[in-house]
Amino acid sequence: MIHPTAVIDPGARIGSNTHIWHFCHVMSGATIGDDCSLGQNCFVASGVRIGNRVRVQNNVSLYEGVEVEDDAFLGPSMVFTNVWNPRGVVSRKHEFRKTRVGRGATVGANATILPGVILGDYCFVGAGAVVRTDVPPFALVVGVPARLAGWVSRHGQQLRFDAHGWAKCPATGERYRTLEQGGIELMLEPR
Question: 127-140, pLDDT tens digit by residue?
Answer without folding.
Answer: 999 999 999 999 99
